[in-house]
Amino acid sequence: MENDCEAKVTPSTQPYDTLSESPSTKTKTNLQNTEAIVCNARTIFYACPFVLLALLILLGIPLLQIIIGSLCKNECPVNPLIPVYLLVMGVATLTLISTVILAVTVKKLSFLFYLSILLALLMFGWCITGTVWIFKSQGKAQFYYPNQRSTYCQYSVFNGARVLSYMNYFYLTGLLSLFSKRSNQ
């Protein structure tokens, strides 16, 4: 039986391709494309942990507010509005984050941008209100005797609300600066 796998050369009247590149130029272009893909993959690989960390912080803080506010809603009788502040602020922050992401990705829906600004301003007012509630209760709140209901507030609720309110100011300041930069463009 004879070998049917012989290389047959057929002459072509067509150039190598429509751009009339030589095979060595085409190989160089393919090599450059491969290097660019490897570089992009490397960038994504190195940037991915930072993106995940930022996403964890960005979504973790409002989720923590929701969890503390809903689980401990009756644990701060010195000012029962502090857990409500945490719950509302967490839900509003998640709503604002999703609205901002939609406004950035879908540029045709400009009303989302204005809705985000309005929501950020309302959240800023709510944050000031919650901070006033927290600092008014700071002098009379105690964490050790739950039987003294007029002055008791669970430690994690009170201090969590205080720390998370500071983080909310950073959120809102960053978002408002982002809005002011975008509106100037």
Low-pLDDT windows of residues: 1-12
Q: Based on CA inertia axes, which overall geometry fits?
A: elongated
Into which percent range does the helicity of residues fall?
over 70%
Helix-strand makeup class? mainly alpha
Transmembrane segments: 44-68, 80-104, 111-135, 155-179
InterPro entries: TMEM272
Region (Disordered): 1-27
Keywords: Membrane, Transmembrane, Transmembrane helix
Give a quick set of tags describing it:
mainly alpha, elongated
Entry summary:
With 185 residues, the protein is mainly alpha-helical. It is 71% helix and 0% strand. It contains 4 helices and no strands.
Could you please describe the fold and organization of this structure?
The termini are far apart. The protein has helices at 23-71, 81-105, 110-137, 155-184. It is built from four helices and no strands. The model is unreliable at 1-12 (pLDDT under 50). The chain has a domain at 61-184. The longest helix has 49 residues, at 23-71. Helix 2 (81-105) runs antiparallel to helix 3 (110-137). It is mostly helical.
Present the secondary structure layout:
Layout: H1 23-71, H2 81-105, H3 110-137, H4 155-184
Helix pairs in contact: 1-2, 1-4, 2-3, 2-4, 3-4
